[in-house]
Q: What sequence folds into this?
């Protein structure tokens, strides 16, 4: 058991480089946790606070030397730490919740509200209870977070948690076709205002992302999922951010010139680059995977955009417009 | 001077400054907390640097006049350091930990918040949501809490606003507020705020008594505009019905056909926005009436189909 060896010179463990403020933030958090619980395994603390066991032990040994003047043993924090476990007997003040910054208060209030907006997410009401108390402490309730609520969301969520295969009837917007797919659900993510199911698609033989509001029907099965989705259930919450839409090898890079009236495009679709030209126009670079989708985009932009490159896509908008026009003309004859 | 790890000096400093009783002078503090240079300018600089680090960590060190030759004393006021106890039950704390693990705000604020509450995020759940992180958000949040007016630049215009509600919807953050220059409610997309909003004095913001907090803050694009509203009927193919109803709601349906298609009625004041949105559905939707809206769409499509007319772009 190591306790404070003030003045004896601690072993020179090389810390992972973090600035002192960040180390203090984490140390105060670990101390608060210990003040509430009294003891905890090193491995658990290390995982929970995202710190290597060596750094954790080193910081706690250092904390064992901290306290109030005259720094006699009775004035120091009582922390005993070995390779396996930390035992602490700390002043109850250390366990008191600390004042939150605006960003932190906002993050908590927004996270709780986001989850509460998902139907069936707070079955025991604990989160609503927590939010009520939080709002009271922050003296604010004028925040609203509404995540999308498409028709099959709840069934998809149940399938994800049950780990059962589902059969989807899915409308792929980029290809504009309906297909039936057997999917091993992996996880559910909300991004840019939409929910996506990431799962193993048996038809494609790989992990695919499905937009939940494009699921036309969903049939649950009793068959357990047989593929796990890579990257899921990872180590820390920070590492499991859903990947952004990185254009795959099948994507085509397209350059458009748009005028002021077409400038909305850079808000509406993911762009790779936007560079202004001197004449008020701008050049927008996109990665596209579907000609249909691109044709519809050009059709919406109308006279406000033209294709700079590649030239073979210059007529994609006209082609798409003819298809839509055909529908209007057919109906006009009836 | 004994070599002391800076983390140790900071931890001791926090404990000493939090101690009950009067504020203490720099000399007293530096004598008591191991690790400060013995005297002079170096000592003051080290202390100032520590104060800055604490401030960056959200720990406010207050300055107070004290008796004696040093005149200025320092301490951390408990009310600046602690939050009134939230009184969360273990279940409530666990639910909050899970929520923070599931909702990604693009920075570690949520994790830090749980740390300050003496807890930590849960392991990653299978459901996760990404909310866009914008630098203005915490500032707007603070303005709402403090009832402070806001001044910011939004799409090239200076705005003076009484903030009312901060709302996330359909992938965007919006601030709903009362525009003091235009004397009317306005909705601002937060990602279009171009500078760091400035707060007026706390308590300076008062909403008009009849202000409706629940007023929809993001109307459909085709409803924004100064034109008179017209009812437009749109036929929607079965294949895109879920997506369409999800956007316009079941209430818009006026007819359900045997083949699964539906007719929806939309109130439209901006026909350009309606056209752009409908064309996302390709040939799966069709404007039925009024004839003028249908004609307008056909003209647009005909022009796109034969682009010779605007060949020069």
A:
């Amino acid at each position: 058991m190591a306790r404070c060896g003030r003045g004896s010179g601690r072993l020179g463990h090389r810390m992972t480089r973090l600035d002192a403020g960040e180390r203090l933030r984490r140390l105060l958090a670990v101390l608060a946790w210990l003040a509430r619980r009294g003891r905890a395994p090193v491995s658990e603390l290390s995982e929970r606070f995202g710190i290597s066991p060596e750094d954790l032990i080193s910081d706690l040994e250092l904390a064992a030397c901290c306290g109030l003047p005259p720094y006699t043993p009775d004035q120091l924090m009582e922390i005993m730490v070995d390779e396996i476990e930390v035992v602490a007997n700390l002043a109850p003040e250390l366990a008191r919740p600390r004042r939150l910054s605006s960003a932190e208060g906002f993050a908590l209030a927004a996270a709780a509200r986001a989850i509460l907006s998902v139907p069936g997410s707070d079955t025991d009401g604990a989160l609503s209870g927590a939010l009520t108390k939080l709002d009271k402490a922050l003296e604010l309730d004028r925040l609203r977070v509404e995540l999308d609520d498409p028709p099959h969301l709840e069934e998809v969520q149940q399938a994800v948690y049950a780990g059962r295969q589902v059969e989807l009837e899915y409308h792929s917007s980029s290809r504009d076709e309906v297909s039936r797919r057997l999917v091993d659900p992996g996880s559910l993510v909300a991004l840019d205002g939409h929910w996506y199911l990431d799962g193993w698609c048996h038809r494609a033989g790989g992990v695919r992302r499905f937009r939940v509001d494009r699921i036309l029907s969903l049939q649950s099965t009793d068959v357990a999922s047989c593929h796990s989705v890579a990257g899921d259930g990872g180590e820390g919450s920070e590492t499991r951010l859903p990947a952004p839409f990185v254009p795959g090898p099948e994507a085509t890079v397209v350059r458009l010139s748009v005028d002021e009236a077409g400038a909305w495009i850079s808000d509406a679709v993911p762009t790779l680059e936007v560079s202004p030209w001197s004449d008020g126009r701008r050049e927008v670079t996109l990665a596209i995977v579907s000609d249909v989708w691109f044709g519809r985009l050009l059709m919406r932009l109308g006279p406000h955009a033209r294709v700079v490159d590649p030239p073979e896509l210059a007529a994609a908008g006209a082609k798409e417009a003819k298809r839509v026009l055909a529908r209007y003309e057919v109906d006009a004859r009836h | 001077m004994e070599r002391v790890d800076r983390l140790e000096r900071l931890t001791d400093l926090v404990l000493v400054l939090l101690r009950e009783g009067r504020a203490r002078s720099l000399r007293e503090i530096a004598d008591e907390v191991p690790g400060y240079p013995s005297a002079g300018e170096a000592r003051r600089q080290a202390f100032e640097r520590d104060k800055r680090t604490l401030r960056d960590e959200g720990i406010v060190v207050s300055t107070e006049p004290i008796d004696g030759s040093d005149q200025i004393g320092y301490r951390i006021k408990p009310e600046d350091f602690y939050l009134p106890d939230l009184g969360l039950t273990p279940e409530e704390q666990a639910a909050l930990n899970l929520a923070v693990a599931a909702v990604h705000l693009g920075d570690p604020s949520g994790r830090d918040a749980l740390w300050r509450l003496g807890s930590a995020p849960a392991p990653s759940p299978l459901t996760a949501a990404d909310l866009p992180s914008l630098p203005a958000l915490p500032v707007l949040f603070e303005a709402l809490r403090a009832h402070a007016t806001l001044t910011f630049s939004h799409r090239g215009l200076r705005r003076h606003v009484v903030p009312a509600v901060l709302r996330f919807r359909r992938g965007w953050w919006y601030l709903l507020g009362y525009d003091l220059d235009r004397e009317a409610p306005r909705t601002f997309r937060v990602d279009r705020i171009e500078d760091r909003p400035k707060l007026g004095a706390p308590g300076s913001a008062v909403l008009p008594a009849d202000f409706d907090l629940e007023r929809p803050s993001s109307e459909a694009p085709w409803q924004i505009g100064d034109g008179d509203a017209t009812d437009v009927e749109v036929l929607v193919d079965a294949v895109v019905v879920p997506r369409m109803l999800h956007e316009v709601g079941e209430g818009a349906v006026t007819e359900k056909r045997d083949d699964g298609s539906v007719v929806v009625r939309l109130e439209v004041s901006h026909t350009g926005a309606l056209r752009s949105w409908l064309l996302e559905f390709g040939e799966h939707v069709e404007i039925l009436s009024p004839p003028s809206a249908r004609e307008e769409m056909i003209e647009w499509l005909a022009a796109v189909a034969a682009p010779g007319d605007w060949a020069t772009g």
The mean pLDDT of chain B is 87.
